[in-house]
Amino acid sequence: MSASPAPRKTLLALRHVHFEDLGTLAPFFADRGYRIDYVDVPLADLRAIDALSPDLLVVLGGPIGAFDEAAHPFVADELALVKARLDASAPILGICLGAQLMARALGANVYPLGVKEIGYAPVTLTAEGQASPLARLGDASVLHWHGDQFDIPPGASHLARTAVGEHQAFALGTHALGLQFHLEADASRIESWLVGHACELGAAKVDPVALRAQAREHHARLTEVASAVIGHWLDAMPR
After folding, report:
1. For this structure, is 217 an active site residue?
2. Which DSSP string do the residues of 7-60 spell out, in sequence order?
3. Is 192 exposed, middle or buried (0-12, 13-18, 19+ CB in 10 A)?
4. In this structure, which of 49, 78, 208, 237 has its CB flanked by the most CB atoms within 10 Å?
């Protein structure tokens, strides 16, 4: 009699706009044995979601702010879900808006940076960052696409900075990782980003032709280091 297959781990991804998904990390997570389920946050009943049910929660990016519940009421419910996850010290990864929501749920401020940081460039790791999974980044360029910044939450480690934004990543214990930048962006689908955020790019005077070229230039390296960083983070968690 053959043994039953091991149950798959579950990953719940909170998605705000359809093209900002797990990108190049989706096949990585699948190879790690995760069944991936997406929740389209603006349309979902977030109060019906058990924050502690999935093995991993990933909160993705989007073109709104972490304090925008007056304009987008679902933000309050999403914040409560993220906070419940953090309060339980359950594994959670936040990317861009997701990291900002994590920071707010942990008591840190989130506020306009004053400029748009958009384009591919490396981050500078702090001493704590060099001892973290982000060390796998090396000098690889990541995709920056934000106009807000979080403060580092109380008790969290400040992992990375750029000349434009001082607070680019934080970790709380081994279970929570917040990244202001995008590791997951898939250059083969960058056109969706360029179209979906065309108004923002125009207002910030960012050339989509140059950004498209950057995406193609950095795609292979970023895909490689993204898997290395997140793999190291997952491996460091207690079983």
Report:
1. no
2. PPEEEEEEESSTTSS-TTHHHHHHHTTEEEEEEEGGGS-GGGS-TTSSSEEEE-
3. middle
4. 78
Is 166 considered catalytic here? no
Instruction: Check if the beta carbon of residue 125 is closer than 8 Å to that of residue 159.
Output: yes
Q: How many CA atoms lie within 13 A of 165 on its CB side?
A: 32
Residue 72 is a catalytic residue? no
Q: Which of 16, 158, 184, 197 is catalytic?
A: 184
Cut 0.90: pTM above it: yes
Name the active-site residue from 20, 96, 117, 218. Answer: 96
Q: Which candidate in 167, 182, 197, 218 is catalytic?
A: 182
Average pLDDT rounded to a whole number, residues 63-70: 96
- 138 has pLDDT over 60: yes
Task: Give Dmax (Cα) for the chain.
Answer: 64
6 confidence band (pLDDT: 50, 70, 90):
low
